[in-house]
Amino acid sequence: MSGFQLNAVPVLSRSSLDRAEHLRGDEQALKEGWAQAKLLRMNKRGQVRIADGAVVLEAATTLAEEPAADAVFLGVESETHLWAVHDNDLEGELTDLRAFGATFTLSDRDTGLLSTAIALLNWHRSARYSATDGTPTTATNGGWSRTSEAGHEEFPRTDPAVIVLIHDGGDRVLLARQHTWPQGLFSLLAGFVEAGESLERCVEREMLEEVGVHVREITYLGSQPWPFPRSLMLGFAAVADPDDALTFHDGEIAEAYWFTRAEVREALAAGAWGSGDAQARLLLPGSISIARTIVESWAAAG
């Protein structure tokens, strides 16, 4: 069976957050909503407070009496405005999105809050000066843009990247390990889309660069935000010949092997990396990665 589709929505794509874009530029509405608003505090490591397996939100007025200049408007839940702010003095039980998703079942609301807050707050930290005129910028539109002293408005940046399951059209899949990953941890191959490049061409180029294989029958599967720090992962499947020699041209890949569907199913049954046998030959990514959803879908399709 050469073709397959995702059998589930990737975890970080399940957000139920109402972003309420129409309120971002309405300063009066944001000011009026602040009195009853809820606030998510996040430190520079992307950690937040949790309690009973959920993200802790507190009254926005604990930060200021009016919308703070460094707070970002995330959206609305049951007519209550939701905001986020960087706070490096957080105390209590802390966790980040990766660890949270590995330990607890992420609600659709918390998924949207965390992924949006991480991406948006990190962008503000790196966009203090205009890329157009070099002058200092200030947050505008509820934190969804920054405007320079010269009047240039800039918006949060998102970098598209492809992530690809390469299979042989039958019961084998090609998985790879980066040099920085623990022994046994394998995943799909991925790479950033270059300027002026189509997604399909990026799949062909990146797979050739990373493992030296020519792919065909490229099929789009789905997407997921990946706010580490600001990517959008675009999932694909492609077919390659397992008899082709594997060569690691760009230096990112330490090793790659063709695994059988039976081996992948066994690894999936053992749980995500960090929760199973650290000495296992094949460990797979955690649930919040679209890679996990794609691998699970391929394994089930056989």
In summary, what is this structure?
This protein has helices at residues 27-34, 97-103, 108-126, 199-211, 261-269, 290-301, and strands spanning 38-42, 48-51, 54-55, 58-59, 72-77, 80-86, 94-95, 137-140, 145-148, 153-154, 159-167, 172-178, 189-192, 216-226, 231-239, 253-260. It has 302 residues and is of the alpha+beta class.
Textual characterization of the structure:
It is a single chain. The protein is α+β, with helices and mostly antiparallel strands and 302 residues long. It folds into 2 domains: 12-126, no CATH class; 158-301, Alpha-Beta Complex (Nucleoside Triphosphate Pyrophosphohydrolase). The protein is 23% helix and 28% strand. The chain contains 6 helices and 16 strands. The strands form 4 sheets. Strands 11, 12, 13, 14, 15 and 16 form a 6-stranded mixed β-sheet that branches. It has a 4-stranded mixed β-sheet with strand order 4-1-6-5, with helices on both faces. A 3-stranded antiparallel β-sheet has the order 3-2-7. It starts with 26 loop residues before the first helix and ends with a helix. The model has no long low-confidence stretch (mean pLDDT 94).
